[in-house]
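Renewal narrative, Specific Aim 1. Our central claim is that a sequence can be written position by position from structural information alone. The example that follows is taken directly from our test logs and has not been curated for this report. It begins with the structure tokens describing the chain, in the order in which they were read.
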């Protein structure tokens, strides 16, 4: 036995590694028993693999700007095809993992393989539409920010666009009945940008998040077209209804509806299933829990006046 291995074994004994491993196994098995998974431990999709998938899909969607730096025009289609093939093959593997994880009963391997393949194919067929939507988002960012010098700068530099790329892809997976993978993808963007968009939200074209840090968009939010949000905006729930046993009711509409052409400035908090009418402007740091009609202009001063009247 060489010296380095010997030293490693000695260190493990000194640190009590064997005892820690034994204790961790006991805790892990107890947790599996509690979740009735003792004989079926979960094998979840990989966050690292999904990051690779999103990188590949982004490069296939925007090969000239997010692909390889030395790509020639005559090689673009080959690059897109090769990159898509790798990304969708890996996505297929991750989809199978989610389907196995979420299966309510024992199923043979073949049906899940077929289901995963069908969902991967369907997702792939939606990518041209995703690219069209992203083009509108990029243009909205360029038109909405006087500091933007080009569409290319917006795509490669703006965290809001990065978060929206992740969201647009994740939303399609969410619509295909893959809530875990889609949530993992938006949380990758959340970690990188500070922008938290639930993949279940519905967002129209030409969506722009300026600066972005601290933005939260809840699961049942509905956002129209040509909407602009600034940093630290929250579209959240006002309350969380429970059933007769005190458990939270999942999936009920509880987040705001923003109609077309709404602008919400930094730090505003909009809560509950309320509607912000078309063309409205919500000022910075406003706390809003009631619907407002079209073309409203809501400021802190106005909210304070309303509070005093009431």
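The sequence written for that structure reads:
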């Amino acid at each position: 036995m060489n010296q380095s291995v010997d030293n490693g074994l000695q260190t493990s004994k000194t640190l009590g590694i064997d005892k820690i491993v034994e204790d961790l196994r006991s805790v892990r098995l107890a947790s599996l028993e509690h979740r009735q998974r003792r004989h079926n431990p979960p094998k979840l999709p990989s966050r690292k693999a999904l990051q690779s998938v999103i990188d590949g899909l982004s490069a296939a969607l925007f090969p000239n700007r997010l692909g390889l730096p030395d790509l020639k025009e005559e090689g673009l289609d080959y690059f897109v095809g090769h990159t898509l093939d790798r990304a969708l093959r890996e996505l297929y593997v991750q989809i199978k993992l989610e389907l196995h994880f979420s299966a309510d009963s024992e199923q043979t391997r073949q049906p899940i393989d077929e289901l995963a393949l069908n969902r991967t194919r369907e997702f792939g067929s939606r990518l041209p539409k995703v690219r069209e939507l992203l083009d509108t988002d990029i243009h909205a960012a360029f038109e909405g920010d006087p500091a933007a010098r080009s569409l290319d700068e917006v795509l490669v530099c703006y965290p809001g666009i990065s978060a929206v790329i992740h969201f647009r892809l994740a939303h399609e997976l969410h619509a295909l009945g893959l809530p875990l993978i889609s949530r993992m993808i938006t949380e990758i963007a959340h970690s990188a940008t500070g922008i938290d968009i639930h993949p279940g939200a519905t967002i129209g074209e030409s969506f722009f998040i300026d600066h972005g840090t601290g933005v939260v968009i809840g699961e049942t939010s509905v956002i129209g077209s040509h909407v602009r949000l600034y940093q630290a905006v929250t579209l959240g729930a006002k309350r969380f209804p429970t059933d007769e046993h005190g458990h939270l009711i999942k999936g009920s509409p509880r987040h705001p509806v923003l109609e077309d052409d709404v602008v919400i400035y930094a730090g505003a908090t909009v809560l509950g299933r309320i509607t912000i009418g078309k063309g409205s402007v919500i000022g910075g740091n406003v706390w809003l829990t009631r619907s407002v009609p079209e073309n409203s202009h809501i400021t802190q001063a106005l909210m304070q006046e309303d509070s005093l009247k009431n």
